[in-house]
């Protein structure tokens, strides 16, 4: 089964077809997707900027992370579900869309960076207190910002590269 | 053609608008900046409003001694400037759109109510302060919905983009 025939099978399932044929479902799911993505990027940026020492230096990094990460994960789950629905409705078009592919790569990189932080520099986060984060953590924060800004940019670019009404 | 439509026509022929229209990367790049600012503002607002509403725990040791939302106003500034660039670049798409017009009314209301809330929240919130926080959060959600629907709804007399 080629990628194209898999995409074609997917978009002809009943619900993806309903999304495509409805005037409202696509915009509604897209709006929820944008709100969820905003919460993912906004919450994770507070952690990244704290790691970099740009914002909230008077608070320990672990407290910023503790406040942000539940938002990040819940909003990410919503963004994945709504994103999958948007994708399924136009799967044939999206698999061929270069910005869409770039977005997926950037998402994977953001995930790898987060895992590396979790199991690497971030393991001692509870001991950093209000001071500066270690170099490894600052690098992870900077990479995270770059990848997530890239995800937003690629996502917006999808709208311009495809024939969607943006 | 309505007065607003005529104004949009005039604006789209001014040099700044022509410049934005002719340099292809300006509108997409500005939209990306706009979305990143929405991300910052929406997350900060959601946490703050839910804290005032009592859904999330209020910050204890650092507290809200002065401005509870120091970064919010920078975010709103970036939103206003990037939004203005988008309006100048695509006046008809924005000014003749009903979701855009509703969004602008909500932005003014939300900004004033947020300012009021940020002052009231310095004290222990009363029931009316909690309700105000809920209203403010609902306003910001509506603003995002209207913003996205600018791309989809145009009931005006002129064709949207």
Task: Compile the SSE list and pairings.
The complex is a heterodimer of chains A (166) and B (161).
Chain A: H1 3-11, H2 14-21, H3 25-51, H4 61-89, H5 91-95, H6 98-119, H7 135-161
Chain B: H1 3-12, H2 15-22, H3 26-53, H4 72-89, H5 91-95, H6 98-120, H7 127-149
Largest sheet geometry of chain A: none
Total beta strand runs of chain B:
0
Portion in beta strands of chain B: under 5%
The structure class of chain B reads mainly alpha
Poorly predicted regions of chain A are none
Which properties best describe this structure?
heterodimer; A: 166 residues; mainly alpha; 7 helices; 0% strand; elongated; B: 161 residues; 71% helix; disordered C terminus
Can you describe what's shown?
The complex is a heterodimer of chains A (166) and B (161). Chain A is mostly helical and 166 residues long. Chain A is 77% helix and 0% strand. Chain A has 7 helices and no strands. Chain A is elongated. By secondary structure, chain B is mainly alpha-helical. Chain B has helices spanning 3-12, 15-22, 26-53, 72-89, 91-95, 98-120, 127-149. At the A-B interface, α3, α4 and α7 of A face α3 and α7 of B.
């Amino acid at each position: 089964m080629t990628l194209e025939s898999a995409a074609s099978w997917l978009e002809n399932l009943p619900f993806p077809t309903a999304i495509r044929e409805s005037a409202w479902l696509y915009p509604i799911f897209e709006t929820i997707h944008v709100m969820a993505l905003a919460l993912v990027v906004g919450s994770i940026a507070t952690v990244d900027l704290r790691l970099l020492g740009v914002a909230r230096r008077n608070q320990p990094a672990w407290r910023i992370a503790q406040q942000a990460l539940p938002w990040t994960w819940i909003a990410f789950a919503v963004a994945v579900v709504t994103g999958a629905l948007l994708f399924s409705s136009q799967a044939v078009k999206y698999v061929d869309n270069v910005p869409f592919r770039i977005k997926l790569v950037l998402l994977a990189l953001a995930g790898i960076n987060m895992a590396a932080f979790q199991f690497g520099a971030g393991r001692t986060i509870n001991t950093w207190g209000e001071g500066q984060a270690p170099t490894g953590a600052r690098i992870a924060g900077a990479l995270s910002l770059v990848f997530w800004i890239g995800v937003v940019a690629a996502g917006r670019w999808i709208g311009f590269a495809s024939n969607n009404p943006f | 053609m309505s007065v607003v439509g005529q104004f949009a026509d005039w604006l789209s022929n001014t040099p700044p608008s022509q410049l934005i229209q002719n340099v292809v990367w300006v509108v997409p790049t500005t939209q990306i900046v706009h979305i990143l600012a929405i991300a910052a503002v929406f997350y900060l607002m959601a946490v703050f409003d839910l804290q005032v509403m009592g859904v999330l725990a209020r910050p204890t040791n650092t507290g809200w001694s002065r401005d509870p939302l120091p970064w919010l106003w920078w975010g709103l500034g970036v939103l206003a400037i990037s939004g203005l660039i988008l309006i100048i670049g695509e006046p008809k798409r924005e000014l003749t759109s009903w979701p855009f017009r509703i969004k602008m009314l909500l932005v003014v209301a939300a900004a004033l109510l947020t300012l009021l809330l940020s002052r009231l929240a310095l004290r222990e919130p009363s029931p009316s302060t909690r309700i105000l926080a809920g209203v403010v959060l609902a306003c910001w959600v509506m603003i995002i919905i209207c913003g996205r629907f600018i791309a989809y709804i145009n009931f005006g007399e002129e064709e949207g983009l």
